[in-house]
Design goal:
Blueprint lengths: L6 E3 L2 E2 L11 H11 L2 E2 L2 H10 L10 H4 L2 E9 L9 E5 L6 E5 L11 E5 L10 E5 L4 E6 L6 E3 L8 E3 L20 E6 L3 E7 L6 H4 L1 E4 L8 E2 L1 E2 L5 H5 L5
Parallel strand pairs: 4-15, 6-9, 12-14
Antiparallel strand pairs: 1-2, 1-16, 3-16, 4-7, 4-13, 5-6, 7-10, 8-9, 11-12, 13-14
């Protein structure tokens, strides 16, 4: 996990900070964009959870950052529904609608999920920019649509599945056992647009290895940003289970 040793929580080191501030999804993306740092993505967060041992020590890193927001933005439609030109998700807690534009090549797809990792592009332009959309909406502007990935066979129900290699999303048509290599627990809603949340129930196996893709974006959590350009491959070569 060497590449994450200089990870920070909004510009302060993970290991030094105790009074961690929590942010909504929109606020943390805007804070990271302003500071020109990237939010660690879902696979990197996964590496922290797998390598940690929260039962062993109260000083374990997970006690400081969990539950936390992963810097991977997800969007999926209702089961068996075409993705269409946009995916809208309305938060049940504040009635705000979050909108994600679907790349043309994926608009006829069904039962898949779109994903994109937050980062700062060359020249300092953020890849993901949340913008106001009317009185009660947020539109996610993606400055390079080619960065959006599509993962087919997104499960229709919550269970353990093997995570995909690129984004670490539980996917596929076959449920697996919790102890299977790469097994992660999916928490999904009917449809969704937002960041993933990791370590929601830290001392529960389903929570530690769970990927929450169902929590309203206005809920507040910790978030970790990185001042290094670490790659998902370097983290996950050490974190496979």
């Amino acid at each position: 996990m060497q590449k994450l040793e200089r990870a920070v929580i909004l510009n302060r080191t993970v290991y030094d900070r105790r009074d961690i501030t929590k942010f909504s999804q929109i606020d943390v993306i805007r804070e990271a964009n302003s500071a020109k740092v990237r939010i660690i993505n879902n696979k990197e967060f996964d590496g922290i959870l797998v390598l940690s041992d929260p039962w062993k020590s109260k000083d374990d890193i997970c006690h400081k950052i969990c539950p936390g927001l992963a810097g991977t933005l997800f969007a999926y439609a209702r089961p068996d529904e075409k993705l269409g030109s946009v995916i809208n998700y309305t938060s049940p807690s504040n009635n705000m609608t979050y909108t994600f534009e679907v790349p043309v090549e994926f608009r006829k797809e069904r039962n898949g999920i779109l994903a994109i990792n937050h980062k700062i592009l060359a020249g300092g332009t953020p890849l993901i920019i949340p913008k106001k959309n009317g009185k009660n909406g947020i539109f996610y502007e993606i400055t390079d649509m080619h960065e959006i990935g599509f993962i087919p066979n997104f499960p229709k129900k919550n269970a353990f599945y093997v995570a995909d290699e690129k984004f670490g999303i539980p996917a596929g048509n076959r449920e697996v056992s919790p102890g299977d290599k790469g097994a992660r627990y999916l928490h999904r809603a009917d449809n969704y647009v937002g960041l993933g949340v990791r370590g929601f129930f830290l001392f529960n196996f389903n929570g530690r290895f769970g990927v929450r893709l169902d929590l309203p974006p206005d809920l507040c959590f910790a978030a970790v940003t990185s001042i290094e350009n670490s790659t998902t491959e370097q983290v996950n070569n050490e974190s496979r289970m």
